[in-house]
Amino acid sequence: MADEQQRTVLLVGAGVMAEGYLHAAGALGLRVGVVETPTRYAALKDRFPCLVDFEPVDEAAADRDESWPAPAMTLAARLRPDAVWGFAEPHVLATAMVQHRLGLPGPGLDAATVSRNKALQRAEFGRTGLPQPAHRHTRRLSEATDWALERLPVVVKPVSSQGSQGVERIGTPDDWSDAVARRDTEGPLLVEQYVEGQEYSVEALVHRGRVLFTNLTRKETTGPPHFVELLHEAGYGADRPALRKAADQLCRGVVAALNMATGIVHLEFRAALDDEPVIMEVAVRTPGDHIMELVARAHGFDAFGACLSLALDEEPSVPDGHTPVRSAGSLFLSSPGTGTLAALDLSAWAARPEVARHDTRLAPGTRVRPAENSGDRLAWAVLDCATPARTRALARELTAAAVVELAPDAEPVTGA
């Protein structure tokens, strides 16, 4: 339609996992302006004809929230967009500010602000009576010593971070003393009582405060002390009605507590029992680790296109989320040890038809270690399988088939 071809979306952040939005925009006949680093924009501009404008962000400061509002406002003034959509964590506040100033749909400034601060989340969820761990927000880790030692094990985390950065489980008094010695001057931290149970997330699409769709994702991690995610399994829970019901109810409670208006909710929780979920944290942006692609594959719809419809204040046609058509997963490879990555051979992955896509993340010559945050992971694969059991089996097979060669650290190394 001619009218639709004239509509413009401003996309704040356009990383690799945001390319689904650009594909969807092209299919919908939308014009897109992006706020991104020059390097990233150069990688996009010739591949996506829907791109019509660009405003740069400083490469060295792109991980900071405060780097994005000014260029986003500048591009918005130039394009006068019909919709604004943010991608990852550093883009949430800038996106919400532009949406607010232009009167366009979005999660709302309050939801965006709370989502970017775990201490604010704890306060809001406590105020509304939602289940969450006992916790303390402390300026210095040592100030929480008495409280923590009475409740070991505990988890220490920054109030604003992503990808498991700075998340650490502490199980003994000696471990606590070590953590205080290392992190006492780090700044405000959240200390939480450790919650046993399987890790999950809910991905929800929300329109004007109403939850339209939910997906349940099961997670496998490295376990303590850092809990780096190594497998996400979307479309989970079709045979677990109590878990699905509890997850949906928890998600709706979080949406209400945040005063969430329109957008994505990515809610992480643990559950020892199916009907007893406990909130870990929430974000109002595209989930990482290819989860949006997994949602699309598992439920058989264009999740990215649905999000653009939300941004345009349209209610998209979506499945119910409880009857997935496939099982989709994203697998991540952790280094078996510490050293210099000498070689990484994933040729066995390429031969598998159920591997939809895969790639390396770190190159030979990089210093590597068993994953302590998401940036340490060596490679990834998107899996598209008929059943959840097959997804888990394939993940084990691929992990075993990857060839990782490490060199000792006798020579200086480059990289992380």
From TrEMBL:
InterPro entries linked: ATP-dep_AA_Ligase, ATP-grasp, LAL_C2
SUPFAM superfamilies: Glutathione synthetase ATP-binding domain-like
Residue intervals of the ATP-grasp domain: 122-312
Top-level taxonomic group: Bacteria
Keyword terms of this UniProt record: ATP-binding, Ligase, Nucleotide-binding
Gene Ontology molecular function: ATP binding; ligase activity; metal ion binding
Pfam family for this entry, one: LAL_C2
Protein name stated in the entry: ATP-grasp domain-containing protein
